[in-house]
Amino acid sequence: AQSVAQPEDQVNVAEGNPLTVKCTYSVSGNPYLFWYVQYPNRGLQFLLKYITGDNLVKGSYGFEAEFNKSQTSFHLKKPSALVSDSALYFCAVRDQREAAGNKLTFGGGTRVLVKP
Amino acid sequence: EAQVTQNPRYLITVTGKKLTVTCSQNMNHEYMSWYRQDPGLGLRQIYYSMNVEVTDKGDVPEGYKVSRKEKRNFPLILESPSPNQTSLYFCASTSGPFSTDTQYFGPGTRLTVL
After folding, report:
1. In 3D, which of A3, A8, A14 has the Cα closest to residue A75?
2. What pLDDT score does A52 carry?
3. Contact between B32 and B54 (Cβ < 8 Å)
4. Nearest beta carbon to residue B58 from set A43, A51, A103
5. Are A106 and B45 within 8 A, CB to CB?
6. pLDDT band at B22 (very low <50, low <70, confident <90, very high)
7. Are A45 and A98 in contact (CB under 8 A)?
8. B99 vs A107: CB contact, 8 Å cut-off?
9. Is residue A89 a contact partner of residue A36, using CB atoms and an 8 Å limit?
């Protein structure tokens, strides 16, 4: 079985400061990891994914995430947060072994609030 | 523009009154799925479809039905809605069955069952 944990319900950060959203995962095989963002009254938008290769993945809107296999983590980061980054962020995992269903397992979400 | 559309976006109904939420994608994707989003629980998969006429249960299929008669459409059917199905629903599509494929999500349907 696969699972994802986002330990923080909300992250508050001042505009211009670094932003980190934490994610840890559990899978039986190799993980495929994704970050999605949800703005108010909108669907989920893809930010970035880790499949293989370089542990540092760069994505949309200046976000990046670092895959750490030993800590089973995939934290999302942005060096300088903007007020417009305020949204709900979801980490998701897919176990490479679980081909059937192509199912993504999501974390509970972390609300990011960037204050001016 | 490549997109996944859902209708309606908002729906208030009463217990037991059958309803259908439509989902359509214009990307010729084979794989489609439905999720529900509840606070603190993230998104949970309801049903998925690998291709036309091929559907299967996800994690929380009870109380839902789906059909896939055309590649582009994947409606979600609640035969007898109950208040515990009040939720935010998302349809998603992927180009194929490979685990590395990115899923594209619709804008969501907020359902309230009284």
Report:
1. A8
2. 85
3. no
4. A103
5. no
6. very high
7. no
8. no
9. yes
Q: How far apart are CA A14 and CA A35, in angstroms?
A: 22
pLDDT tens per residue, range B50-83: 889 989 999 899 999 999 999 999 999 999 999 9
User: Which has the closest alpha carbon to A92: A43, A26, A41, A29?
Assistant: A26
Residues 28..87 of B with a Cβ closer than 8 Å to A: which?
31, 33, 35, 40-45, 48, 50, 56, 58-59
User: Is the Cβ–Cβ distance between A111 and A11 less than 8 Å?
Assistant: yes
Nearest-neighbour CA in chain A from B37: distance (Å): 9
Widest CA span in chain B = 40
- Give the separation between CA A60 and CA B12, rounded to whole angstroms: 35
How many C-beta atoms lie closer than 10 Å to residue A78's C-beta? Answer: 21
- Residue of A26, A4, A2, A28 lying closest to A76 (CA atoms): A4
- Which of A10, A40, A12, A37 has its CA nearest to residue A115? A12
Q: Looking at residue B96, what DSSP letter applies?
A: S
Distance CA A99, CA A39 (A): 30
Counted residue by residue, chain B has a size of 114
Backbone angles phi, psi at A100, to 5 degrees: -70, 135
Q: Which tokens in the block code for residue B76?
A: 């979600």
**Cβ proximity of B50 and B68 under 8 Å:** no
